[in-house]
């Protein structure tokens, strides 16, 4: 038998996935949640948990909040230590986009709301998983078959999609040594089943550093043309 609390969480997630408004669910559960937290803040937290790959602006829109009301709701969550904002760089002069991480400190409230955290699609930190979700959304939008944590031969790639009969692999590099990341990327390209490898970087500076490291290692350019680099928001 499924415990009542677990049943509530499962129902909340299924209702969201079925297109039933999170606002409706929060309204239904509202009497059991903390009265000190506004409905707008509860809605914002719910969307941040269920769609972490969406921008804060998208969360405001999904929750039916104006920019002003949304900012006040975000401030409530920040004051209580429930969320952490992440500034993600755009390519060019487009400024930054803010993503919102729902921290573990919000777990008690999520239980009251009946909201269950989605299962991670990629190992690693929160932002690594967000990149995996962005890739999944991108592949679905294009109608591509795709897999997270796909093993081909001796190598496991963060993400693989099939395009025109070819397998395109993706790796997410957000921190650490650019040289080690470049070596791993070039090694991944030696897999005969992979037509192309795409690397996701945090910002333009990291992208250029990685490209330089690849050029130094692959001096003759045997694999360079088979590797492309992207920023997180290029696929979001």
Question: Overview of this structure, please?
Answer:
With 236 residues, this protein is of the alpha/beta class. It has 2 domains: 110 residues, Arc Repressor Mutant, subunit A (Orthogonal Bundle), CATH 1.10.10; 110 residues, Trna Endonuclease, Chain: A, domain 1 (3-Layer(aba) Sandwich). The protein is built from 10 helices and 7 strands. The strands form 2 sheets. A 5-stranded mixed sheet has the order 3-4-5-6-7, sandwiched between helices. Helix 3 crosses helix 4 and helix 8 packs across helix 9. The longest helix is centred in the middle third of the chain and has 17 residues. The radius of gyration is 20 Å and the shape is elongated.
What share of residues are in beta strands? 15-25%
What CATH architecture of the largest domain would you give? Orthogonal Bundle
Strand order of the largest sheet: 3-4-5-6-7
- The helix-strand sequence is HHHHHEEHHEEEHEHEH
Key attributes of the depicted protein:
236 residues; alpha/beta; Arc Repressor Mutant, subunit A; Trna Endonuclease, Chain: A, domain 1; five-stranded mixed β-sheet; two-stranded antiparallel sheet; 10 helices; 46% helix; elongated; disordered N terminus
Structure, briefly:
By secondary structure, this protein is an alpha/beta fold. It folds into two domains: 4-113, Arc Repressor Mutant, subunit A (Orthogonal Bundle), CATH 1.10.10; 126-235, Trna Endonuclease, Chain: A, domain 1.
